[in-house]
Every structure is written in structure tokens, then in C-alpha cells.
Amino acid sequence: MRPMKPARRHTANVTFDNQHPAHGDARQELLEGLASAQKTINPKYFYDRKGSELFDQITRLPEYYPTRTEMAILDGCRQEIAGYCGSGCVLIEPGSGSSEKVRLLLDAVLPAAYVPLDISASFLQQAALRLGEEFPWLPIHAVCADFAHHRDLPGGLPPGRRVVFYPGSTIGNLEPEAAQAFLRRLRHWIGDDGGLLVGVDLHKSTERLAAAYNDAAGVTAEFNRNLLHHLNRVLGADFDPQQFRHHAFYDPSRRRIEMHLVSARAQTVRHDRGAIRFASGESIHTENSYKYTHESFAALAAGAGLALRATWSDDAALFAVHYLAPEGSAPPDG
Ligand code: SAH
Ligand code: AVI
Questions:
Q1: What is the pLDDT of residue 25?
Q2: Which of 287, 288, 321 to mutate to test the pocket of ligand 2 (most atoms within 8 A of CB)?
Q3: Per-residue pLDDT at 4 exceeds 60
Q4: What was the pLDDT predicted at 12?
Q5: Among candidate residues 314, 209, 187, 315, the one with its CA nearest the CA of residue 254
Q6: Angstrom distances, CA of residue 24 to CA of 1, 3, 27, 31, 114
Q7: Residue-range domain boundaries for the chain
Q8: 9 or 232, higher pLDDT
Q9: More confident residue, 87 or 215
Q10: Per CATH, is 13-205+292-325 categorized as 3.90.1200.10?
């Protein structure tokens, strides 16, 4: 990844604000993770341009039920959801990716503005421009940033009730304590009168979950290994992705999918400031994807000062969409 200078670009109803973190921050974080006893990389590093494209392919795989299930829920309940959001709100989406899901809500919610927030700069910019052409009435303020670093909402947004749209169970990629801290931050973003529409993947059979992260076409494996190409660019390293095997499994006791890259042999990877040694079979832990029940998610949200106002799910109870509001705040019609 080449470092990108902060930039602001305008195209009709779309602005693009590039606040991508500096290259040096990423280097330090990555090297620290690779120096720990269990080598670990933050899953946000999946999302270079190629990683965002591969994730898009994952969302269309037969085994990966979350995307189509959540889209069906949003599609079926959009009017009810709009009632909670309230028209004229400012809709903010952390981890917006292709901004595919928000399309299902826009004509019902009629927000005053949409703020897609993502770490994958060129993918975000292109997605925002496409959305802007499709919805010319909608002001779009795209912000490329690491959402974990933003204590406050990006500046320069229009006034209006803040509603955060956080679909895809992206919250599941955070450790529960970090997820709760992030919800607390979102609670701060939305103020006392805002809301949060969040998509959560549900705990279910180990077989179903393991299949979703071990697709027959091998796209998830490619997504996992693509991380090493990203690392090669950031660290000036010589990882050979073919020397690492994709490994994903569900741990029902912790209710999480774990993804790893397992070294196929003993090997030394060089980077521009040193070397990293791998024993045969040693892994880099690349992602956790936590699954929740309605109760465990409600408890997580309560710890962040947010109360469940509504829950929508599919008949097979694969996925849930929750509307949360600050505890003690008035209901939408109150
Ligand atoms: N919301 C979309 C995409 C989910 S994939 C959907 O529901 O399908 C997760 C998205 O979050 C990716 O687009 C990725 O680039 C983004 N992302 C992950 N970690 C991030 C971080 N720390 N800051 C900003 N964006 C992040
Ligand atoms: C973005 N996130 C919610 C996906 C997930 O299911 O945890 C990322 C992913 N990893 C492998 N497949 C999809």
C-alpha cells in the first residue's frame, strides 16, 4: 500500500475525505503483532483494494449466508426500520465496504446525508461515486479512516439526528471488550437522540458456521492469504502466500470463528528491518468473528449504555438486525 496524502475531492453530491492512517503506524502495529507468542494481525489489514474485492466475492458465495440473510431482513423491514431512524437523519456507516446494503434503506429512510467510513481508500471512493450517481439527491460524505481511531465523528457533517448503520456483523471482528468500547464510542457519536442499526451474526451449528468460512471455491482462503501480499507491501517483506495454509474453525465455547494462516514448513520471512521465523505448523491468527445470541448482544449493548428497541431476524434465526438507542431516551414516537 502506498501512503496516501490527506486529500479532499468533490464530485457533485459526493465528497471524499482521505484520513487514512500513516504508513508508519501500520508498520509498528504489524511488527508488534508478528513478534507476539501467538503471531497476530488485526483483521483490518485484510482490506487493501484486492481484499475488499475478495470480501465482495465472499458475500456472494453459497456458503456465506450472512450477507443475503441480512439483506433480506433489511429489505423486508425497511419501512419499520425507517420509522425508528426518522427521516432527515444523518446516516453514518462504519466499515461501509461496497455500500450495497444501505441502498435498501435510502428510499425509505430519506436521510439528509450518508457518511460511509472505511479504511479501504480507493474501494470506498469508487463505491461512494457509484452510489452518488444512483442517488443524486443524497449528499454523501465519504471518509477514509480507521474507525477505531475516531473518538469523535469526523467534522464537517450536516446537522441532523445521527443514526449509525453498522451492518455485516463487522462488530463480531472485535473482541467483546473492544466491541463494547466501540459501542460506547458510537453512543457518544449519536448523542442522546440518535440511534444505531446493527447487524449481528447469530450463534448456530458448528457445521453451518465452519462451512461459511471454508467455502468450496477457496475464496475465503484467498482472502486470508491476500493479507500476506498487503504485509509484503507495508513491511517490504517476502512472505510467499503459497507457503501458508488457510485454517478456519468455530469454537462454540467462545462463540467465535478463528481464522489462521498456518506455515506449511519451517521458514524465515525477511522484511526491510529484520526477519520473522516460523516453525512448521505455526500460525498467524488473522481474524476472530464472534457470534451472539439476542441475549448476549443485548447485554453487550447495555454495558455501553444502549438499549434494544427492536430486533428483526430471519425464520431460520441465522442473523439479526437490532435497533439500539441510548438507555432512557424517548422512543421514536414518544
Ligand atoms: N458493511 C459491509 C462491509 C463489511 S466488511 C457489509 O455489511 O457487507 C468490513 C468492512 O469494514 C470492510 O469494508 C473494511 O474495509 C472495513 N473495516 C474493517 N476494519 C476497519 C477499521 N478499523 N476502520 C475502518 N474500516 C474498517
Ligand atoms: C467483515 N466480517 C464481518 C466478515 C466475517 O464474517 O467475520 C469477514 C470475513 N472473514 C471471512 N469471511 C468473511
A1: 83
A2: 287
A3: no
A4: 81
A5: 209
A6: 12, 9, 5, 11, 30
A7: 13-205+292-325, 229-290
A8: 232
A9: 215
A10: no
Sign of CA dihedral 65, 70, 75, 77: positive
Q: Which three cell numbers stand for residue 189?
A: 457519536
For ligand 2, atom 4, the nearest C-alpha belongs to 170
* 233 three-class SS: helix
Ligand number nearest to the C-alpha of 101 = 1
Q: How far is the CA of 145 from the centre of ligand 2 (A)?
A: 19
Residue 57 to residues 67, 107, 244: CA-CA distances in angstroms? 11, 26, 21
Whether ligand 1 lies within 6 angstroms of the CB of 31 is answered as no
> Ligand 2, from 173, 222, 226: best to mutate by most atoms within 8 Å of Cβ?
173
- 142 CA to middle of ligand 2, Å? 22
* Binding-site residues, ligand 2, Cβ < 6 A: 58, 168-170, 172-173, 213, 220, 287, 289
Going from the Cα of 265 to the center of ligand 1, the distance in angstroms, rounded, reads: 32
Nearest residue to 118 via CA among 44, 15, 182 = 44
pLDDT of residue 151: 80
Predicted pLDDT at 334 = 39
Phi/psi-derived region of residue 218, left when phi > 0, alpha when psi is between -120 and 50, beta in every other case: left
Query: Within 13 Å, how many C-alpha atoms sit on residue 244's CB side?
Result: 28
String of DSSP letters for 179-211: HHHHHHHHHHHHTTT-EEEEEEEBP--HHHHHH
Coil/strand/helix, residue 296: helix
Give the whole-angstrom CA distance, residue 145 versus residue 307.
28
